[in-house]
Amino acid sequence: MIEHLEALDPLNSSNHVGIHFRIIFTSDASSISKTSYNYNKGNYAAMKEALNIDWEEALRGRTVQTMAHC
After folding, report:
1. Which residues does 62 contact at the CB level (< 8 Å), separation at least 6?
2. Largest CB tally within 10 Å, which of 10, 34, 51, 55?
3. Nearest to 20 by CA among 29, 32, 9, 30
4. Is the dihedral of CA 42, 46, 49, 51 positive or negative?
5. Domain segments of the chain: what residues?
6. pTM exceeds cut of 0.85
7. Average pLDDT in the 42-49 region?
């Protein structure tokens, strides 16, 4: 529901006006869930090691077309 709808003064020399209003709503906050990750617990050393790839060697002799289909 919208209440306290008010048209504000025109913007500069334009015929456009701002509006100010209040939206009233209710929500069952207990039904809202959001996944939150704890990035402080990530094993970044293992991720860095897993991504330690010699890209020049891995891509040697390959074309864009062959890499796109692997």
Report:
1. none
2. 10
3. 9
4. negative
5. 2-27+43-68
6. no
7. 94
